[in-house]
Design brief:
alpha+beta, single chain, six-stranded antiparallel beta sheet, Beta-Lactamase, 122 residues
């Protein structure tokens, strides 16, 4: 079931892949399967851990977080695309990798609608 939801996300224009990652950076489920998304998940998790460590030391760290009452979405701009992270249940995150030219609002909206369904399955 989780893979079919990820396949739905990946079916959008300019979305390269999607994964559900745990707090240690391991991909619980990924679409497409392979070392690319798993390596990205591990690297993003290490980046988040380091960012939290730096923030706890009162360092100036710049990230873009879009917040509403239910979601905190982290957007990372990288050389090879954009990475979106959405919080899920059980300290997991939904990772979505898109091209630079994608309609981020459309991808965010779709992911926010699917996040409760994914959380319920975790």
């Amino acid at each position: 079931m989780l893979n079919s939801i990820l396949a739905d996300i990946v079916a959008q224009d300019d979305v390269y892949g999607a994964a559900i990652i745990d707090q240690s950076g391991f991909a619980i489920e990924a679409n497409p399967h392979g070392p690319g998304l798993e390596k990205m998940a591990a690297n993003i998790t290490m980046l988040l851990i380091e960012t939290q460590r730096l923030n706890s030391q009162d360092s100036q760290t710049e990230t873009e977080a879009v917040q509403d009452e239910n979601h905190t979405t982290l957007t990372l701009l990288a050389e090879r695309g954009i990475i979106l992270l959405f919080p899920l249940a059980n300290n997991c995150n939904l990772l979505i990798h898109t091209s630079q030219g994608t309609n981020i609002g459309k991808v965010r909206n779709h992911a926010q609608k699917l996040s409760p369904r994914i959380s319920a399955l975790l």
